[in-house]
Amino acid sequence: MDIRNIAIIAHVDHGKTTLVDKILHATKVFRDNQETGDLIMDSNDLERERGITIFSKNAAVMYKGVKINVIDTPGHADFGGEVERVLKMADGVLLLVDAFEGPMPQTRFVLQKALHLNLKPIVVINKVDKPNCRPDEVHEAIFELFFNLDATEEQLNFPTYYGSGKNGWFNDSLTQSEDITPLLDGILKYVPPPTVSEGTLQTQITSLDYSSFLGRIAIGKVARNTIRENQPISLMQADGVVKKQRVRELYVFEGMGKKKVSEVVAGDLCAIVGLENFNIGDTVADFENGEALATISVDEPTMNMLFSINNSPFFGKDGKFVTSRHLRDRLMKETEKNLALRVQDTDSADSFMVYGRGILHLGILIETMRREGYELTIGQPQVITKEIDGKKSEPFETLVVDVPQEYASKVIDLVTRRKGEMHVMETKGDMQHLEFDIPSRGLLGLRTQMLTNTAGEAVMNHRFSEYKPWKGQIPARNNGVLIAKEAGSTTAYSIDKLQDRGFFFVDPGEEVYKGMIIGENNKPGDLVVNPNEGKKLTNMRASGSDGTVSLAPKRLMTLEECMEYIQQDECIEVTPNNIRMRKTILDEEERKKQQKRLSTQAV
Question: What region does 485 belong to: left with phi over 0, alpha with psi -120 to 50, or beta?
Fold first, then answer.
């Protein structure tokens, strides 16, 4: 059977999932009258809400008698772990680039991985229907990027297609075609069929699926020989352990789903049911003389956070899973399929240190757990430091900001205050394109400030580059917070009286507890206030002055904004229905004692 395996890689929002939609429609996977909606591959609730791809997924289509396995990958740097492992299944990549933005930090990252694996690239310049797009300049920039990444002569000779995924056409020139068939023909022409070497069975597990009927399902590409139903195999694990097991059922991808088959030949992707205790990177090999493939290497995490059980006064009101055993089991289960995540036990039985790629990576995990009914407390995100050549080093990132020219100076000022250094400044149309080198610590809380200072116009992207010597203290949040004095229900009367002190994160009538952060102070330093005081009722009333309380609406903060907002001595209580910020030590006297202890130690 003729097969092509292709992965679609690109920066966030350059149109990967939309292109997959068009391929599915063009190859008649659905009936003509079938309602499918947009972004078919983004099936997870969180992906639909945020409009981003988080998990890589497979689909398979038939075109001119050839089976094309399409792998849709995420574009965010935080989910790089997903991309790194699925590229092992592909033989070619479609590199999608926006005709206005050109190659972005994440484009560079995934392309580097693909070239490293000797995959055949096809460049697709998308969104040429946009005003002020510049396809020719972008084509040159892509060539330069390939050259900088040490591409081979053959890889530098990449074919280029132009088009608009939204309008449903792609062609090898800028003239509009009727549909995307030129691109599909290009895939058949330029992507090589899978290379099959001689020898016994080898299949590397590159991703997982789960079914409540079948249990855990291993997905991978058959590298050598043929795999059959009921075949006894050896599961070669990364630590050298070999387990003798049997394949119960086999599936191949067809359209959006899977089809049961009795055997899968080398070069095709398959899903194997019946294996136990396997991990990503393990090799399914011959029963008698199995040979393992090289394990998948994934970049190290750069950030950690403390996850612990919810110990606030509102413990157990919302969630179903509230004990440390629940929390531990769930985190361990996550590490099985989330390769870039690490979990470590701490001195306390109630807390776990979780290592990830960035705020979004950890935020998605917390949001998923919260929707499943977990309650937990999370601490301030910290970067992971290393000792390199006897010097304390921290992770640095490449930050790219596109912003209208009148706001460029504000952006430069913001980033340099956080120890960032500017390397590139160029004009793209009426936008200014800025590139910085900045410590990962400096990015915490930067997005919110950036959007405020540029009237929401800035587009910022960042990607981990390398570890460099520690840059010293970075200024944190300037203002203090307003803290609730005692438990109770907030009243409009007292919030109205306190409005000149700052703005609030709570509305009248909300339950609060002692030590909870209910607003931001206008000045540095924390302020303990009483938001629960009711109005004293007397017989004397001034007509017309009652009930004229005008309150500013509360400020809504998303989970990621809260994670960037909190300081060292604060944490976030996350439950299925609420996200509350609080002081780690709730009692005011205890906090003062702790502060004294810390200041004497510092001296």
Answer: alpha
- Asked if 311 and 351 count as a contact pair (C-beta separation under 8 A), the reply is no
* Listed residue (145, 128, 171) closest to 14, CA to CA: 128
Pair 341, 365: CB distance under 8 Å: yes
Instruction: With both helix axes pointing from N to C terminus, report the angle between 408-417 and 446-453 in degrees, rounded to the nearest 10.
Output: 150
The two three-digit tokens of residue 28, written as one number: 């008649």
Please report how many Cα atoms fall inside a 13 Å half-sphere around the Cα of residue 341, on the Cβ side.
Answer: 25
Q: Are residues 20 and 39 in contact, defined by beta-carbon separation less than 8 angstroms?
A: no
Name residue 369's amino acid: M
pLDDT tens figures, 471-499:
888 887 788 999 999 999 999 889 998 99
Is residue 222 within a helix (H) or strand (E), and if so which, with residue range? strand 215-224
pTM value? 0.83
d(CA 363, CA 357): 11
The single residue listed with the structure tokens 């809380």 is: 445
- pLDDT tens for residues 515-530? 999 999 999 989 999 9
Give the Å distances, CA to CA, from 437 to 49, 131, 397, 442.
31, 30, 6, 10
User: HEC string of 415-471?
Assistant: HHHCCCEEEEEEEECCEEEEEEEEEHHHHCCHHHHHHHHCCCCCEEEEEEEEEEECC
Contact 165, 130 (CB under 8 A): no
Tell me the one-letter amino acid at 88. K
Burial class (CB in 10 A: 0-12, 13-18, 19+), 108: middle
How many alpha carbons lie under 13 Å from residue 39 in its C-beta half-sphere? 18
What is d(CA 303, CA 317) in angstroms, rounded to the nearest whole number?
30
Which are the contacts of 454, defined by CB distance < 8 A and separation ≥ 6?
403, 404, 407, 410, 411
Instruction: Give the span between the Cα atoms of 52 and 70, in whole angstroms.
Output: 18
> By 3-state DSSP, what share of the chain in percent is helix, strand and coil, each rounded to 5?
25, 35, 40
